[in-house]
Amino acid sequence: MRTTVAIIGAGPAGLLLARLLHRAGVDCVVLEARDRAYVERRQRAGMLEQGAADVLRECGAGGRLDREGLVHRGFELRFEGEAHRVDLPSLTGGRTVTLYPQTEVVKDLIALQLAEGPPLLFGARVVAVEKTDGEQPLVRFVTEEPGGRDGPERAGGPERTLECEYVAGCDGSYGASRRALPPGAVRMHARTYPYSWLGILADVAPSSDELLLAGHERGFALHSMRTPALSRLYIQVPNGTSPGDWPDDRIWDELDVRLAAGDWRLQRGPVLTKSVSGLRSQVIEPMRHGRLLLAGDAAHIVPPSAAKGLNLAFGDVVTMARAFTHWHRSGSTSLIDRYSDNCLRRVWQAQAFSHEMTTLLHTPPGADAYDRAMQLTRLRRLTGPTAAAAELAENYAGAPLI
Ligand code: APR
């Protein structure tokens, strides 16, 4: 097989890149290790910045988003028993965010790609990315039979190769692209936070129309929603916590304490899923080695506190698509050569904002009264009529991508 751009991974980054390149007339192929059902079922992020939603609309993938997405014009920060609403349009010149699950973004992009191209191969696990220092990189992959219900795929067919001009590594933080980086070729910045999130999906209508982020002395809590009938809620727990440590009633009781504000009441309902995930940050610099360019989780990870993961992935691939299209039409690699620097400015901005929202709203082990006073002082500035509030809203709503 041969193509111009080999895209590894059919997550949001790989799928949006394929859509943008296809519409620009740049030949590409997407290789995805898992089967379609698995990829479309993976619960991940759920909030699109204005810029990300606009990109989906601009490339013809915004229909269902506009019909089913929940447009949010603000969110609340809660601390000391008080609720402080942050109004996005008035602080950002009209920008909003949209709640639309990543699973739905992926379904929409897959449906478009299967209908209109470019080729999307499921069950195609990349096992090596070679010759990225040369003019003709080579991607080796094996086709796999879909696993059982959730079981791993079983290696099936013979090894195949995809020759290309460039490789887009959109295969997440455990993919083949990172493994293809020669030792010493990149710097990895990493941070692991001293706490985790216990998340539940509950079969109950949200108790608020907007997101509620609580920075309680006992720890962080988040009230969000998947759909108008399903609530998504999280509490900070110690690293090493197992979901079994927290019976449903204990979770609801803790959410009541941490999210309390005035006479607001949290509605309870059956817990459908319960899971614990750690909080970590990673940045790979540069986001490129030779003819291998990285995007999305393959290049960086952010803690979920500011919901930047999906939006950063979109920012990367909009930049990458622009660079490949410029090269395809002019022969100039100037934008490809500036790809990593152009992405990393936005990546570090999102890292800084995610880090601030994480340390501001979580209570680390061993925190004392001074630490708490620092958090409350910062929270009061961010929720007052100050320039800090405008900066918070700008960071939360994100910058335009096109
Ligand atoms: N060969 C082929 N495909 C692979 C390989 C491989 N060796 N390794 C991983 N993949 C696939 C995975 O199966 C997955 O579908 O690459 C895809 C990577 O998708 P994501 O992990 O969703 O990463 P990305 O597209 O960058 O999206 C980032 O996803 O993890 C969340 O919070 C994150 O919302 C953010 C978004």
Which SSEs are present, and which pair or pack?
Elements: E1 5-8, H1 12-23, E2 28-31, H2 36-41, E3 47-49, H3 50-58, H4 63-68, E4 70-72, E5 74-79, E6 82-87, H5 88-92, E7 97-99, H6 102-116, E8 120-121, E9 124-130, E10 138-145, E11 154-163, E12 166-169, H7 176-179, E13 187-202, E14 211-216, E15 219-227, E16 230-237, H8 248-259, E17 271-285, E18 288-289, E19 292-294, E20 300-301, H9 309-330, H10 334-337, H11 339-361, H12 369-382, H13 387-397
Helix pairs in contact: 1-6, 1-9, 9-11
Bound molecules: adenosine-5-diphosphoribose.
Adenosine-5-diphosphoribose binds next to helix 1, strand 9 and helix 9.
What does this structure look like?
InterPro entries: FAD-bd, FAD/NAD-bd_sf, RIFMO-like. This is 4-hydroxybenzoate 3-monooxygenase. Keywords: FAD, Flavoprotein. This protein is of the alpha+beta class. It has 13 helices and 20 strands. The chain has an eight-stranded mixed beta sheet with strand order 6-5-14-15-16-13-17-20. A six-stranded mixed beta sheet has the order 8-2-1-12-19-18. Strands 3-7-4 form a three-stranded antiparallel beta sheet. A hairpin with a 2-residue loop joins strand 18 and strand 19. Helix 1 packs parallel to helix 6 and helix 9 packs antiparallel against helix 11. The protein is globular and about 60 Å long. Adenosine-5-diphosphoribose binds next to helix 1, strand 9 and helix 9. The site of adenosine-5-diphosphoribose has 27 residues, from helix 1, strand 9 and helix 9.
